[in-house]
Amino acid sequence: MVLNQPSVVCFRKAGAGATDARPTLEAVGELAKALLGREPGHLEAVRPMRHGVIADAHAAEQMIRSFIDMSRTRSRFGRRVEVTLCVPSDATAVERRALREAAFAAGVSEVELIEESLAAGLGAGLPVTEPVGSMVVDIGGGTTEVAVISLGGIVYREAIRVGGNQFDAAIVNHVRNLYGVLLGEQTAEHVKQTIGSATSAVPRRSTRAVGRGVGDGLPRSIELSNHDVADALAAPLKQVIGAVKSVLENAPAELVTDIANRGVVLTGGGALLADFERLLYDETGLVARIADEPATCAVRGAGEAMGRLTMCQAD
């Protein structure tokens, strides 16, 4: 893998020392993410993607162009650039077209789309082309995809617009309501990654977090436990479990039998949430395993699918 960067860009606002009348690109990826919630008045950090689709076309174009340029400095990219992009299975035709148009505007020569759950299954090493049912639960930043895959295609799937970003927002809301402290987005993400847990059936662990008092606006340091995080995440995780149950209820019986025998594979950054496998087993009876390097399964699968038209029919 040549490049692995978050989908964040930072612009210098028009008129804030910029020579152009339009906002100018200041930073992208990790550098831009570090500015989220910390920008001075003349800068604005934004996420071009929301729930796996484009929320800001201009920002998405600038981000893709920058990532291509960064990749060229680290590999032997030719002048002609072909890309395969992951798309949520519930994305509309308009959303899919917007994704393609942003890539073309960024200088891409050829664009293929692949549904994210299929790409994740490929990247996780599942036997997706064989006549056997495989289930993947892909918990990304803005969406969760649950799919049953067989013979190179998706037999049944559910996509919900809940993912790691919504987990972070749930932690922010829970801490504000319980402790009267407002955490920043990146602080909530750090808490989730440090002590996050899907259940309270684990030994208690804690960390300190600093936020702003809701009443007085002053800095406040509080101690949060993994049980606090489990309580915060109960509602969004209930939606994820609901999607898994819906797929099991609607998939062909023979494939469900395969899944019961083979288990479920968890992919996406959200798969790293501690004890999620236990929660899934308690709620469905299915044994789950976390894929190797789950956060990059979808991108690795998209790379494997590149040029294989039967798998890139999401557009």
Descriptive terms for the model:
315 residues, alpha+beta, Nucleotidyltransferase, domain 5, three-stranded antiparallel β-sheet, MreB, ATPase_NBD, ATP-binding, MreB_MamK-like
Task: Please tell me about this protein's structure.
The protein is an alpha+beta fold and 315 residues long. The protein has two domains: 9-114, Nucleotidyltransferase, domain 5, CATH 3.30.420.40; 127-294, 2-Layer Sandwich (Nucleotidyltransferase, domain 5), CATH 3.30.420.40. The chain has ten helices and 15 strands. The strands form five sheets. A five-stranded mixed β-sheet has the order 10-9-8-14-15, with helices on both faces. The protein is flat. It starts with 8 loop residues before the first strand and ends in a 10-residue tail after the last helix. Belongs to the FtsA/MreB family. GO terms for molecular function: ATP binding. One of its GO terms (cellular component) is cytoplasm.
Brief account:
The chain is α+β, with helices and mostly antiparallel strands.
Number of domains: 2
CATH architecture of the largest domain: 2-Layer Sandwich
The stretches of 5 or more residues where confidence is low (pLDDT under 50) are none
Q: Helix/strand/pairing class, anyone?
A: alpha+beta
Which strand order spans the largest sheet, edge to edge or round the barrel?
A: 10-9-8-14-15
Number of strands: 15
Helical amount among residues, as a percent range?
25-40%
Whole-angstrom Rg: 21 Å
For the sheet with most strands, the description reads: 5 strands, mixed
Alpha carbon gap, first and last residue: 25 Å
